[in-house]
Design a protein that fits this description.
By secondary structure, this protein is mainly alpha-helical. Helix content is 64%, strand content 6%.
């Protein structure tokens, strides 16, 4: 290969095709398997509403708006089905893989090793509706690496813009990266004073303000969004960002075949904070040239430390998978710090690939489909996918019931944790809420009841499943007033094909209100 060709494949544009191939291969393998009726459905419904002109957070319960507008753009070309959503997620995944490979390119000294890194990162990117979170983290690492290598005013301004844009796509990412960059800038100020004048901090703040532009434009254009946005922040302080789980510390979980996933999860939840604290502590004693030479390790330490909140906010494999990348890239870069050879890099990759296969690999839809005792069934979600038989039967049953019994002018309430049924049944939620994980105030429940009466809600589809086996999260406990209203004004509807865990309620003496 000529020198020019070698330079190209090692250049940013030469690495981009690798990211596309990795993400595209994963998409082709996985996109038509499985469906998550809860979190994925939460995003899917919101993307459909956004494509029709609704405003996330103001008009329906939502994540931060950026991801909805990104995915809604795909519906202009691919339709509003689930496969279009997954394609848009894959496109965002390409960005994350690209910047991660650009960062890894500093220590992966041949094309085969870089490919191994890409495969390892792709395996850990799970689930697909969280590719936004994976990508924002990987972008944060890449930007931190560039800051350490050359803290120019241009790069500092771009770093600030990234934080502002994170607010549009995920406020938690904005906070994590703000804290990581602020800590890094303090380190650079201490270590590289001639190269880092104090005026750079003003440039950084200016970048943040510029990055906030999309959200500020939304605030100005969408009346009522500011109030909903502030209320969503207050809700986080009241209820937290996730339903917490006990940390499976490895000394409490035996590494049996059944508990291997929990055991490895506990191991990682011990290793991650120890590694990040060690890296940051070591960086305080490094001389300026050594800091720049080991930018990837140091960037991973600072960024990874603040992303630990996400891992511990709900201590499960899914949340670990979304934030493991700083640890993975730091582990890859550490042998280079001690002048290791490619063998060390391959050893790190092999261990992390094995860990991914044992943990997230078992939760991937393709693995569950291939190891299922009964063949999965076809389901139309704006394109055919394969789903477990119980989900296929549920969707077919509800579609037939709705076709036979529910008039076009009647609204349907679906509670508490299966918002994917709205797009699957071509329905619109009568309430702002889509998932009922946390209790609502008495005032909000009274408002819900008034809305149910005003919007022709004559039907309720209710699932009896309880997350994390917590009875306090059962709908009848978390929304007791609404539940009392439903039991007093609705009665069970018969359907021979319904599963035991799902019920349909019909309003007593229902009367259609003209719309």
């Amino acid at each position: 290969m000529s020198t020019v060709a070698i330079q190209f494949v090692r250049s940013p544009w030469g690495i981009l095709p690798l990211a596309i191939v990795l993400a595209g291969s994963s998409f082709l393998l996985q996109a038509r398997s499985g469906i998550n009726l809860a979190d994925e459905g939460f995003l899917w419904y919101g993307v459909q509403r956004t494509a029709r002109g609704a405003v996330p957070l103001r008009d329906f319960q939502a994540y931060d708006p950026g991801r909805y507008y990104w995915s809604a753009a795909a519906t202009l070309f691919l339709g509003r089905g689930l496969l279009a959503l997954r394609f848009s997620e894959m496109a965002f995944q390409v960005i994350g893989l690209w910047v991660a490979l650009l960062a890894a390119n500093r220590v992966a000294h041949n094309w085969a090793l870089l490919l191994g890194v890409g495969v390892m990162l792709t395996l850990w990117m799970f689930p697909s509706h969280k590719f936004f979170d994976c990508t924002l983290l990987l972008c944060g690492i890449w930007i931190a690496v560039r800051l350490i290598e050359a803290p120019s005013s241009t790069r500092i301004f771009a770093a600030g813009i990234f934080i502002g844009l994170c607010v549009f796509f995920g406020r938690n990412h904005a906070l994590y990266n703000f804290l990581a960059q602020a800590s890094l800038l303090l380190l650079l100020r201490l270590k590289l004073q001639p190269e880092f004048p104090i005026s750079h901090l003003g440039i950084w703040v200016a970048g943040i303000i510029v990055g906030l532009a999309p959200l500020l434009v939304m605030f100005a254009a969408a009346h009522g969004l500011v109030g909903s946005y502030l209320e969503s922040i207050r809700s986080i302080f009241r209820h937290g960002t996730n339903l917490a789980l006990a940390v499976p510390w490895p000394w409490r979980v035996w590494p049996t075949s059944a508990g291997a996933t929990q055991f490895l999860l506990g191991i990682f939840l011990v290793l991650l904070p120890l590694a990040y604290v060690a890296i940051i502590g070591a960086s305080l004693f490094l001389k300026p040239p050594m800091i720049k030479d080991n930018a990837l390790v140091i960037a991973c330490g600072f960024v990874g430390l603040f992303y630990l909140h996400h891992a511990f906010s709900r201590a499960d494999i899914s949340h670990l998978a979304q934030v493991i990348f700083p640890f993975a890239l730091a582990a890859l870069a550490l042998p280079a710090l001690f002048r290791g050879n490619n063998f060390h890099g391959w050893a790190v990759i092999a261990v992390l690939i094995a860990a991914a296969l044992v943990t997230v690999g078992r939760q991937q839809p393709i693995y569950q489909r291939l190891t299922a005792r009964r063949p999965w069934e076809s389901c139309d979600v704006g394109g055919k996918i394969l789903v477990p038989p119980n989900i296929g039967r549920l969707v077919d049953c509800l579609r037939k019931f709705a076709s036979d019994n529910i008039a076009p002018r009647e609204s349907v309430l679906i509670v508490p944790f299966t918002p994917a049924l709205y797009p699957l049944l071509n329905l619109e939620s009568p309430l702002w809420e889509l998932a009922y994980y946390v209790p609502s105030s008495a005032q909000r429940q009274e408002a819900m009841i008034r809305e149910l009466a005003a919007k022709n809600v004559n039907w309720v589809i209710i699932s009896d499943l309880v997350p994390d086996r917590r009875e306090d999260l059962r709908f009848s406990a978390s929304h007791n007033r609404v539940w009392q209203y439903l039991t007093e004004n609705f009665e069970p509807a018969e359907s021979a094909c319904l599963q035991n865990s799902v019920r349909i309620l019909h309003r007593k003496n229902a009367v259609l209100i003209p719309l």
